[in-house]
């Protein structure tokens, strides 16, 4: 499974790969067992000037509300003592 995930990760452009690396760090800092799409989305938004930011401006998204919703969702996730978070199945599916 880990080798398969590595193959998927190599397909990402540098911007998305950097955000996913940040998502893994965020996940580990918060003691979450799995890196979820929400971790990744938060880090993509944090980097700014990517496709999501452009779409958000174009369609007048309330970025603060999205940001706060993501943080609230992460705050409610269970904590784990696992040393290294794994990719969650939904995130694996997105990367495919």
From TrEMBL:
InterPro entries: Clp_N_dom_sf (IPR036628), Clp_R_N (IPR004176)
The entry's keywords: Repeat
UniProt family annotation: Belongs to the ClpA/ClpB family.
Domain Clp R: 9-96
Organism this protein belongs to: Escherichia coli
Protein name per the record: Type VI secretion system ATPase TssH
Gene3D superfamilies in the record: Clp, N-terminal domain
């Amino acid at each position: 499974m880990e080798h398969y995930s590595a193959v998927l990760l190599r397909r990402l452009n540098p911007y998305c790969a950097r955000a996913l690396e940040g998502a893994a760090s965020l996940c580990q800092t918060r003691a979450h067992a799995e890196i979820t799409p929400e971790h990744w989305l938060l880090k993509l938004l944090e980097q700014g000037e990517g496709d999501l930011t452009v779409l958000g401006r174009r369609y007048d998204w309330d970025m603060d509300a999205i940001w706060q919703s993501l943080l609230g969702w992460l705050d409610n996730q269970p904590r784990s003592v696992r040393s290294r978070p794994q990719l969650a199945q939904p995130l694996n599916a997105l990367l495919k």
